[in-house]
Write a structure and sequence with these properties.
The protein is α/β, with parallel strands linked by helices. The chain has 17 helices and 19 strands.
Length: about 425
């Protein structure tokens, strides 16, 4: 027990931790807490609430479902669980970047990414938590009452007293509202996302390359889009501040997008199902306090523009668990958790800058110039790969690309591109 924060020291025997949400961040936090408690010989009780039923695929998760490096190390070294090879639908080695006029293949190095069915991955992690002795309750937490000596947790099927509550509810409206009522928490700023799936013929999917196609179109409402191959279908997503189904319709009509899809693809005739979600682009306000902490999407601690949400969810879960068991459950203790996430927080300024540059470049056609430049400059091409894939931090990408070396070539290429465009317009 901390002398400065009575009752708010490291979680010890007889105490209760409640995790609200059973996605990657919540399951990772519960698993790591259980492992540490056993190592430290502390008999703590961990209860995880998850209203959705992942088994049987009874709901759709708006996350595209790509596991990127170093997910294998996170699972096997950080959580001591096996990587779920049986869930991998396709290995992703490369990315293809499309502007409205230009296309470039960005070849990767090292470990591939893995396309999975996201709901099955969530079910796998939750099952791992249950196997380690964590009690999973299928229900929604409906209210929290914070008192000096603990928290009363109400749900739609049972109530209990807890010593600490972990918010791993993503950007679920109910979870956000719950924590806003009970604490100082304010949800992170977020972009909207529309996701759909198409099922091309088997031969088409067999020929489809092991690449994710990324699009930065000149449509001002769409910041980016992507087509991700799975085993028997393509997942298509777009994102923007206020994207709607009409924006997805417009995206699917773009020539650059149609060039990747089957030649006879007619969206109107397929009655495609659209799913809408959100993902954060800034950290939440007051994302922790005495007896509570938020993780993953709920915390907003994701890399901007290229979130790698599953990785961030697992990592924030692990870091929060270690803080709770080793340092405590006070606001001061959770400041250390926030500092442990400086790999994300210190990259945010660079990520916002890259995001603004990418959106502006696409809107004015300057992205065509960058793609043309990348064809003749390997370091620019490598930088684009890491920007799209998220394999490197934006800070590291900025350090790898010397503006002193690149700017003259960029200006020369831009001038040549403008001359070509002007000539084409006159003819």
């Amino acid at each position: 027990m901390s002398p400065n924060f009575p009752g708010l020291g490291p979680l010890d025997g007889g105490k209760v931790a409640v995790v609200v949400g059973g996605g990657p961040s919540g399951a990772s936090c519960a698993i790591r807490m259980q492992q540490l408690a056993k190592q430290l010989h502390r008999d703590i009780r961990i209860v995880l609430f998850e209203p959705k039923q992942f088994e049987g695929e009874r709901h759709f998760n708006q996350c595209v479902g790509v596991l990127s490096p170093p997910i294998m190390e996170i699972l096997e070294d950080g959580l001591k669980i096996s990587f779920p090879w049986h869930l991998v639908q396709r290995e992703i080695y490369n990315y293809v970047l499309h502007s409205d006029r230009e296309t470039i293949l960005l070849e990767g190095e090292g470990q591939p990414s893995f396309a999975v069915h996201r709901v099955k991955f969530d079910a796998y992690l939750l099952k791992q938590a249950e196997r380690q002795g964590i009690r999973v309750v299928q229900g929604r937490v409906t209210d929290l009452e914070f008192a000096p000596h603990g928290i009363m947790v109400y749900s739609d099927n049972e109530n209990l007293r807890a010593d600490v509550v972990v918010g791993a509810f993503g950007l679920d409206g109910g979870g956000c509202e719950l924590f806003q009522r009970a604490t100082s928490y304010q949800p992170p700023q977020a972009l909207a996302s529309i996701v759909t799936r198409i099922y091309p013929p088997v031969d088409f999917m067999k020929r489809f390359d092991s690449s994710i196609h990324a699009f930065l179109p000149g449509l001002r409402r769409i910041e980016f889009g992507a087509i991700t191959p799975k085993k028997d279908h393509l997942t298509i997503n777009i994102a923007g501040a206020q994207v709607t189904a009409e924006d997805m319709d417009a995206f699917l009509r773009l020539p650059a997008v149609r060039s990747v899809l089957p030649a006879n693809f007619l969206p109107a005739s397929l009655e495609l199902q659209y799913f809408k979600g959100r993902f954060p682009i800034r950290p939440a306000k007051h994302l922790y306090g005495d007896r509570y902490v938020t993780l993953g999407d709920a915390s907003g601690l994701l890399r901007p523009f290229k979130g790698k949400g599953i990785n961030s969810g697992c990592l924030t879960g692990i870091r929060a668990a270690e803080t709770i068991l080793k340092l405590g459950i006070s606001r001061k203790a959770f400041r250390s958790y926030y500092r442990l996430c400086d790999d994300v927080t210190q990259d945010m300024w660079y990520g916002r800058l890259i995001r603004q540059l990418a959106v502006s470049s696409a809107n004015i056609g300057w992205l065509d110039v960058v793609i043309e430049l990348a064809r003749g400059h390997p370091h620019v091409r490598t930088g684009l790969f890491h920007c799209v894939s998220g394999h490197k931090s934006f800070k590291a990408i900025r350090q790898d690309i010397s503006l002193r070396q690149t700017l003259p070539s960029l200006l020369f290429t831009g001038g040549r591109w403008l001359l070509k465009l002007t000539t084409q317009t006159h003819h």
